[in-house]
Each structure stands twice: as C-alpha cells, then as structure tokens.
What we know:
The structure holds two protein chains of two kinds.
Chain A: E1 4-7, E2 10-13, E3 19-25, E4 32-38, E5 44-51, E6 57-58, E7 67-73, E8 76-81, E9 90-97, E10 106-108, E11 112-116
Parallel strand pairs in A: 2-11
Antiparallel strand pairs in A: 1-3, 3-8, 4-5, 4-9, 5-6, 7-8, 9-10, 9-11
Chain B: E1 4-5, E2 10-14, E3 19-21, E4 24-25, E5 32-39, E6 46-52, E7 60-61, E8 64-69, E9 74-79, E10 88-96, E11 104-106, E12 110-115
Parallel strand pairs in B: 2-12
Antiparallel strand pairs in B: 1-4, 3-9, 5-6, 5-10, 7-8, 8-9, 10-11, 10-12
Amino acid sequence: GAVVSQHPSWVICKSGTSVKIECRSLDFQATTMFWYRQFPKQSLMLMATSNEGSKATYEQGVEKDKFLINHASLTLSTLTVTSAHPEDSSFYICSARDLGTVNEKLFFGSGTQLSVL
Amino acid sequence: AQKITQTQPGMFVQEKEAVTLDCTYDTSDQSYGLFWYKQPSSGEMIFLIYQGSYDEQNATEGRYSLNFQKARKSANLVISASQLGDSAMYFCAMREGPGGGNKLTFGTGTQLKVEL
Lengths: 117, 116
C-alpha cells in the first residue's frame, strides 16, 4: 500500500528557534498534502492544505507566517514552525491523498512530536 | 455544529467479543465519504475502512464493518472478534465533496480497551 514518510519523529528545540518537518509520499505522487495538529487526547485539527506548485491554504485561526508550508515537488511537503514557543508543542501529522485509489484514501505519516523548551 | 460526533470517549470490550463504536455526522452534501482510522499509542493513523455516500452496501474489511445508516446519518464501526492489539484510539472522519474542499474532518475519537 501507499506509504507516507514523515521526519523527524520527534524533536526538542529551544524557544525562538525554527523547526522543519518533512512529509514524503514514497510510492505515489501527491499534488495535495494535508497538515494536522493534535493535542494530547484530542482529535486531529486540520491546519492547512498544501498544494504542489502553489500557495498553501490555511484554516481559519492558523498563522501562515508562523507555520510555513512548502510543497515544491509531487512527493514532498514541508512544514516549518518558525520562532517556536512552548505553546507550539504538539503532535504534527501529515497526510497525502493517493489519487490512484478507488476512494482516494488519505495516507498518514507517522507524526512528529514537537517539544519546545 | 459538530460535523462528526463520537459520543463514546472510552469503551471496554473483552477479547473475542464484538464491539460497536458510534459515529454520527452532519452534512448537506449529497456526495461524501466516511472513514475510520485507528491510532495506536505510537501515533500513526491507520486506515481501517471507507464508506461512500452512494454505496448501497455496508463496507467490510476483514474484522471491520461499517454500519451505514444514511437516513440517520450514522456510520458506526463494528469490530468483530476483538484482539488485544485492537486497543487504540479510533477516529471517525468525513470528507465532504468539492464544496468542502475535500478535506477530512475528524471526530473526537473513542479510546478502546480490549481486556482478557
């Protein structure tokens, strides 16, 4: 089945620094990828839709200048948390749609646990 | 209003028994898709089953089946012959048509614990 690779799995950083998270579709092309955020014991909240070759579409309330998304190729999207603060600590997970499947399944990466000190 | 409602924060089931996880949804679209995902403690989201709004038969995938009642807007997940490895968080999700941006909206999840 389709595989989405997300890296790193976890990262600890100092307040004020930037952190980049990568999301790759390994065996299919993904013109669209999605970035979610999940707080402990809560649901996944969509942050933004990443579109290959164009600007990302952000959900209401998500700061686009803080959460920079780049989707430069059909297999790679990156999320950069700029000037991270402790309140940005969360589980971030990406997904990609495999248009080659019958019901256009979304496949998820394994997630990134970000801890900002 | 919540688009996806999962009313069971936690459920217990004995090994080898069947369990039903509830999910109701709200949409005005005629075309939509319903998904169930499993999230173990490791965090990854594992696709379990899909039901399209126009599918006349309930979806089944191995031990998983989806009890789709369109008029009631419910899409309950039934896990038969529960196994210890089924202990995880389960999320119901909906993808609405192009008007909804083809995004997935998730419910709040149900924590399932399978006991011996």
